[in-house]
Design goal:
The complex is a heterodimer of chains A (483) and B (355). Chain A has 483 residues and is of the alpha/beta class. Chain A has two domains: 5-260, Aldehyde Dehydrogenase, Chain A, domain 1 (3-Layer(aba) Sandwich); 264-449, Aldehyde Dehydrogenase, Chain A, domain 2 (3-Layer(aba) Sandwich), CATH 3.40.309.10. Chain A has 18 helices and 22 strands. Chain A has a seven-stranded mixed sheet with strand order 15-18-19-14-13-20-21, with helices on both faces. In chain A, strands 10-9-8-11-12 form a five-stranded parallel sheet, sandwiched between helices. Chain A is globular and about 70 Å long. Chain A starts with a strand and ends in an 8-residue tail after the last strand. Chain B is an alpha/beta fold and 355 residues long. Chain B has a domain at 102-249: 3-Layer(aba) Sandwich (Rossmann fold), CATH 3.40.50.12780. In chain B, 34% of the residues lie in helices and 24% in strands. Chain B has helices at 4-23, 30-37, 39-44, 50-56, 64-67, 103-112, 136-147, 159-167, 171-191, 201-210, 230-240, 345-348, and strands spanning 84-87, 97-100, 125-130, 151-156, 196-199, 220-223, 246-249, 251-253, 257-261, 273-275, 281-287, 290-294, 300-308, 313-326, 336-342. In chain B, β11 and β12 form a beta hairpin. Classes of the chains: A alpha/beta (483), B alpha/beta (355). Chains A and B meet through α1 of A and α10 and α11 of B.
């Protein structure tokens, strides 16, 4: 039997092996031997480390942005191709090891692990483009001294914090692309990884350290609830991922950016109602990309007509997505690392259906049988399309961590009021007045105009808040040079 | 050194004496005199030693310490002498109460003999930052200091208020209160010479974030009140106290007194093992499903306390703690309790959710 892999915490770049560990197991073999022991730190240790946050930020600020961007690009290659240290002497993790471990604890098939790996690497490699997007085309050298010119106008930016905290989820590794630009923005990161997903933040951090970015810029603290609250409290700015129960008490705290359920949607305008068949590919991708695990997957589709037919056709397509072995090249569905989540989601969906006013149109398409399936020791929920009679139905605007969507008939005139807070809205319409109204909406974080899957991300656009504006504040600066 | 057999003999003799004392019409305690006359007491017969005690007494119902009048707990031998009322716990509502006279002094004098004079210098000043109020600990610490020729400063912490704040979701208020306590302690530490400190693990962490306790002149820290995992102990020793201040964890409560611990080492993984002050108190690690049985060495079980003094007899009280049953050691040749934590702590470690 192989030795149990020890995953240390990173305390400002310094690996730390705790006496307190959480053991991770392969989700397909929950009673089997653990595959890794993840060091856990207490809140007191985090608070103590954070006393020195300023000096760590100074190290990162001392590196010219051009150089920092080059190192980010180098880190992308290391992240994808090299064996990296896990922090302890002699430890090594190849890209294949990473994919295997990530799949074992998160339930993602290897195909999706690799796709997410590419996504995270893209962010590192394309950092100049990302900064251009976040900084609206400003010369990133402004980050070197805080002052510069933007379109001829003098600007002065000061950092709002000396560290960015992040309390991260386990649902999809792609989420780590969100904090990575903080390093290029010269703000060290303090990360509390999701329980089943220490792999990606560790690999990103070690790749960036190997590329010459100061190790002190990376703190990785697997910890408990109190530790997570400490990360949020001790960092001047923080990202918090979670459902309403977790994030509720931080609502209204300007120093914490909340990433809750996405409730992303596709809208079909009345002008496109008859062409719905042309847009089926967009609907399929929006619902099922990345195993339906992301907040950018569509959880509702609003159409002005033909709801039943659209639901049927979408279900027909999604029914072909079935559980395959985790290393199958065609795997598109992710397993639930914790079967209890799948069971409770399944029960909630069944309760919604029992209440009436909604039908699961996928059941017939897959030839009957339960939504919850076991395959190779893993637990899956099969793709599910619910045709709801009304927006008020409990399943009409609910997000689940698998390919799940509702299709609801909504008159075009009511769509704007119906969308509510939505991370992504894809608007398939050429109706100018509807488009204009959507462009005025404060409910939408990312607006896709035209048949673009909700799951497609252009990296020069900010994701749910602009990280540069979160980490820097513009102030007024006047200077005399003639004296 | 006492052998295990000798220790056992001494315990059996002490059990005989204490049970006789509390059940005798001359010296006894009303609740135990009544017990002796009850069917259970008659069935138990003569208590010849600790095994008879385990067989003869069921688990003690802690509610009786809330409900029965104090008079029922006064041994006749102590009749007419005013007593001290001590309360347990941090929960609100009617607290469990134990009355006493000299026990706490005796317990802490015995404990004082185990202290290292270089870490807890005789004649130096002490500071206690922690629950005072109706707790035995407050008088006990002052007595311990006095007994060593020292005097003690106090900063109060009301754990009942902190728990209420946390229970009602007022984390910011809880933090503000803890800051208030820390601030008062820092003022003493900065303006007075303090050689020895008693505090809780959490407050020790917080104090260490603000100053170096070693640089402030503190030589020894006596720490208790809540559970301490090995990792917490390691953090306190290596970082908070910078391996320059002696660290002495303690496990005790109003009902027992306080336990000594096996010297902490890195090699033992900083796991704390406590040994009850036998024969005045006995700790057993029992099967959670059948408290009449002990678990095997190295196994987790629920902590059961028996207190055996002339002032207070408490047979087989199940604590709200669980621990690992540990082998006797030369210095304390009876079972130890290791890695004490709240009962059921392992079951609470469930998956946190998607996020």
């Amino acid at each position: 039997m192989a030795d149990l892999l020890q995953l240390p915490a990173l305390r400002a770049g310094r690996p730390y092996e705790s006496l307190d560990v959480v053991e991770l197991r392969d989700h397909r073999d929950p009673d089997g031997a653990p595959i890794a022991a993840v060091s856990q730190l207490g809140a007191g240790m985090i608070r103590r480390d954070m006393k020195r946050a300023e000096e760590r930020a100074a190290l990162l600020r001392g590196i010219p942005i051009r150089e920092l961007l080059e190192r980010c690009t180098a880190a992308a290659r290391i992240f994808l191709e090299d064996s990296i240290s896990t922090g302890l002497d002699g430890s090594s993790q190849s890209p294949e090891d990473y994919v295997t471990s990530l799949s074992q604890t998160s339930g993602l098939p290897h195909t999706l692990c690799r796709a997410n790996m590419q996504k995270v690497a893209t962010v590192m490699r394309e950092m100049p483009t990302i900064l251009r997007g976040l900084m609206r085309g400003m010369d990133p050298e402004v980050l070197d001294g805080g002052v510069g010119k933007h379109d001829g106008v003098p600007v002065w930016y000061t950092p709002t914090t000396n560290s960015l905290g992040a309390v991260l989820p386990s649902n999809s590794p792609g989420v780590h692309s969100l904090w990575v630009p903080s390093i290029a923005l010269k703000v060290p990161v303090v990360l509390k990884p999701g329980r089943e997903e220490p792999w990606t933040p560790m690999r990103v951090a070690q790749a960036m350290i190997a590329a010459g970015i100061p190790a002190e810029a990376f703190s990785l603290y697997p910890t408990d609830h109190e530790g997570a609250a400490t990360v949020l409290d001790a960092c001047g700015r923080a990202l918090l991922f979670g459902d309403a129960r977790t994030t509720g008490k931080y609502a209204g705290d300007a120093s914490i950016e909340i990433h809750g359920p996405g409730r992303s949607k596709v809208l079909l305008g009345a002008d496109q109602a008859e062409n719905w068949r042309d847009h089926l590919d967009v609907l399929v991708a929006s619902v099922a990309d990345n195993g339906g695990r992301s907040c950018i997957n569509a959880s509702a589709i609003f159409v002005p007509a033909h709801a039943a037919e659209i639901a049927e056709a979408l279900a027909e397509r999604l029914a072909s997505i079935v559980p395959l072995n985790h290393d199958d090249e065609n795997a598109r569905l992710a397993a639930f690392a914790n079967p209890a989540f799948a069971e409770s989601m399944d029960a909630a969906i069944e309760a919604g259906l029992t209440a009436g006013g909604a039908r699961d149109v996928t059941v017939a398409k897959r030839g009957g049988g339960e939504r919850l399936r076991k395959h190779g020791g893993a637990t899956y929920l099969l793709p599910t399309v619910i045709h709801c009679d009304a927006l008020t139905h409990a399943l009409a605007n609910t997000e689940y961590m698998f390919p799940f969507t509702s299709v609801v008939e909504v008159p075009e005139a009511d769509m704007l009021d119906a969308i509510g807070p939505s991370l992504v809205v894809t608007a398939i319409t050429k109706n100018e007045s509807l488009l204009a109204a959507l462009k005025r909406s404060a409910d939408i974080h990312r607006l896709n105009l035209g048949p673009i899957p909700t799951s497609r991300v252009e990296w020069d656009q900010p994701h749910e808040g602009n990280l540069f504006e979160f980490l820097y504040a513009r102030r007024a600066l006047q200077e005399r040079t003639d004296w | 050194m006492t052998s295990q057999a000798e220790a056992r003999e001494a315990l059996d003799a002490h059990v005989r004496e204490i049970v006789r004392w509390h059940t005798s019409p001359d010296t006894g305690t009303p609740v135990w005199i009544d017990w002796a006359g009850s069917a259970e007491g008659k069935a138990a017969g003569e208590i010849g030693g600790f095994d008879d005690l385990i067989e003869g007494f069921g688990n003690f119902d802690g509610e009786r310490l809330r409900n029965e009048p104090h008079e029922r707990w006064i041994p006749r031998a102590f009749a007419g002498r005013p007593f001290t009322i001590f309360e347990t716990g941090g929960t609100t509502g009617m607290p469990k109460q134990r009355i006493g006279w000299e026990d706490y002094k005796r317990d802490y004098e015995d404990f004082s003999d185990t202290l290292d004079d270089s870490a807890f210098p005789r004649g130096g000043y002490w500071l206690m930052v922690g629950p005072t109020g109706p707790r035995r600990l407050r008088l006990a610490i002052e007595h311990l200091a006095n007994h060593r020729g020292s005097s003690c400063y106090f900063v109060d912490l009301d754990p009942r208020w902190v728990k209420k704040l946390i229970r009602t979701g007022q984390q910011d208020q809880a933090k503000a209160y803890m800051d208030h306590v820390t601030e008062q302690a820092l003022i003493i530490l900065k303006n007075r010479k303090v050689d020895a400190l008693f505090t809780t693990p959490r407050l020790l962490e917080t104090l260490g974030e603000e100053i170096s306790l070693a640089d402030a002149g503190v030589k020894g820290v006596f720490c208790g009140g809540t559970e301490m995992s090995p990792q917490t102990v390691r953090f306190l020793i290596e970082e908070v106290l910078e391996e320059r201040v002696a660290f002495l964890p303690t496990y005790g409560n109003t009902l027992m007194g306080l336990a000594a611990h096996k010297p902490l080492t890195k090699e033992d993984g900083y796991a704390i093992t406590y040994y009850a002050p036998q024969p005045r108190a006995v700790l057993r690690v029992t099967d959670p499903n059948d408290a009449s049985k002990l678990v095997d060495y190295g196994e987790w079980g629920r902590v059961e306390l028996t207190t055996l003094t002339q002032e207070f007899f408490l047979p087989r009280f199940l604590e709200r703690d669980e621990a690992v049953r540990c082998e006797p050691i030369e210095r304390w040749p009876w079972d130890g309790v290791g890695q004490v934590r709240p009962f059921g702590a392992s079951e609470e470690k469930i998956v946190e959710g998607v996020y």
